[in-house]
């Protein structure tokens, strides 16, 4: 069962928090940023395509969380967090484009689900919630990019209505390996 946080969760229940609820946790003792750092460090160390070659530092993730929360408070972003049994299982966020001509558009910047929680629908729930947040914020087109070998993520995005609009062959360099960069979009004006 998936629900937004209101009542006490039951065992194994997935609870989604919005930006405001995450801000309460982030401001209290830094618990959210520390948990997000653990997830990102674990995934990146295992080779996940999240934009880092080496796991980010705790300070880098804390700064990122602060930036996303500030943009969310200003109406220029949204952050969602998924908790199972009181533990952060995943999170994702989008940020509105800053250029005046692109203000109605946003990028789904990051989606990360802990290795232990993958395969339980958490990524789908987070992405669906972020899409709903984008609609509510008046976003017209939500875009994202993903590494071409990230088949599970691309399948998830396409199953939620995103369509590929471009690809840069062999654009992402990880050591000697090269991967395509895939661009996808969800047009919320017609969805």
Q: What structural keywords apply?
A:
191 residues, alpha+beta, Aminopeptidase, 8-stranded mixed beta sheet, 5 helices, 8 strands, 35% helix, 34% strand, globular
Structure overview:
By secondary structure, this protein is of the alpha+beta class. The chain has one domain: Aminopeptidase (3-Layer(aba) Sandwich), CATH 3.40.630.30. 35% of the residues lie in helices and 34% in strands. The chain has five helices and eight strands, in the order ββαααβββαβαββ. Strands 1-2-3-4-5-6-8-7 form an eight-stranded mixed beta sheet, sandwiched between helices. The longest helix has 16 residues, at 58-73. The radius of gyration is 16 Å and the shape is globular. The two termini are 25 Å apart.
């Amino acid at each position: 069962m998936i629900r937004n946080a209101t009542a006490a969760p039951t065992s194994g229940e997935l609870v989604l928090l919005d930006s405001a609820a995450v801000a309460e946790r982030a401001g209290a003792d830094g618990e959210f940023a520390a948990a997000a750092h653990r997830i990102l460090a674990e995934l990146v160390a295992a080779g996940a395509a999240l934009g880092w070659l080496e796991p980010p530092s705790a300070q880098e993730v804390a700064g990122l969380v602060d930036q996303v929360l500030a943009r969310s408070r200003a109406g220029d972003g949204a952050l969602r967090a998924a908790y199972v049994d009181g533990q952060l299982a995943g999170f994702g966020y989008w940020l509105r484009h800053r250029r005046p001509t692109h203000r109605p558009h946003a990028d789904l910047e990051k989606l990360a689900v802990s290795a232990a929680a993958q395969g339980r629908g958490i990524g789908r729930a987070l992405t669906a919630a972020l899409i709903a947040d984008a609609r509510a914020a008046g976003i017209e087109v939500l875009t994202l990019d993903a590494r071409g070998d990230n088949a599970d993520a691309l399948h998830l995005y396409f199953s939620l209505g995103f369509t590929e609009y471009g690809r840069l062959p062999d654009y992402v360099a990880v050591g000697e390996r090269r991967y395509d960069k895939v661009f996808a979009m969800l047009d919320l004006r017609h969805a």
